[in-house]
Amino acid sequence: MANARLIACFILYTSLGHVPSSLGVILRTTDKIVWANEFEPIELTCLIESISTNNPRIEWKKIKNGVPSYVYFQNRIAGDLEHRAQLREPANILIFNTTRSDTAEYRCEVAAIDDQRDFDEILISLAVRVKPVVPRCSVPEAVTVGTSTELRCLENEGFPAPQYRWFHNSEELPQDPKNSPRLVNSSYSINPDTGGLKFRRVRKEDAGEYYCQAKNDAGHAQCPSQTMEVYDVDILGIFLKGFGAVVLFICVFATICHSLKRGCFDKKGHNENNYNWPAQNDGVDYGDADEGHFRHKSSFII
């Protein structure tokens, strides 16, 4: 009677979709989201909690941009992990040196033909951190007191995207200058996401050596230091430049007036308008047009 009840319970249990672990393959992993540093080893775990089949079929697939490709197939490493990975018991994948191209989703699949539940799979997401390279920094060579200026820092290789920090004379600038008694009167602001260092009004104390550092979880890199000089407003220089411009204008104006007074432009126009008049060297004085057709000279005898 007891055995009949046990069989009835088992039939009811299985009909509801519940399979005892001893009758089906079940997989698990220690981490479904895995981070790794570039060029360092990482192991993706695919642990078989329960299985009855002695030689199950194990496969790994890499899914990138929605497209799957084999990583482990027919008992060997395949694809872009060939010669860079190996299968470790029971079904783990060990990557010797990860690269940024390994960032993807990986699916472990186990088929066990002797188990009532003969298939299971588990999905693992791998993200490879990339250390930043030396950022490109832009620091103005010279600025004037009281003006605004911006220092720039940019790095495109690091993953995740790095955060930026600025250093002045080898000391890190705090995010908010009001947090430092020494910089409480400074007007700068730092954007840690874009790498910009902006001064609303430059002070003499802002002169010095500057460099930027890009940092993420994989490491950091910094650009060589560059010098920014700060000058006072050059009032004398501005006056001399303005005075020179006025003097130049007066000279040009005087030259034009003198040329007009000498009639240089009129004479040129007269010659251009009368260049085709015939020469009158025949000894006859024709006189003016309003005195008749012509008149004889006094030496003309009939």
TrEMBL record:
Keyword Cell membrane: yes
Subcellular location: Cell junction, Tight junction; Cell membrane
GO cellular component: bicellular tight junction; cell-cell contact zone; plasma membrane; protein complex involved in cell adhesion
TM annotation in the entry: 235-257
Domain Ig-like as annotated: residue spans: 20-125, 132-229
Source organism, top-level taxon: Eukaryota
GO molecular function: cell-cell adhesion mediator activity; integrin binding; protein heterodimerization activity; protein homodimerization activity
Endpoints of the signal sequence: 1-24
Classification via Pfam families: Ig_3 (PF13927)
InterPro entries for the chain: Ig-like_dom (IPR007110), Ig-like_dom_sf (IPR036179), Ig-like_fold (IPR013783), Ig_sub (IPR003599), Ig_sub2 (IPR003598), JAM-C (IPR042974)
Membrane topology: Single-pass type I membrane protein
Alphabetical GO biological process terms: cell migration
Keywords, sorted A to Z: Cell junction, Cell membrane, Disulfide bond, Immunoglobulin domain, Membrane, Signal, Tight junction, Transmembrane, Transmembrane helix
Family: Belongs to the immunoglobulin superfamily.
Protein name in UniProt: Junctional adhesion molecule 3B
Organism this protein belongs to: Xyrichtys novacula
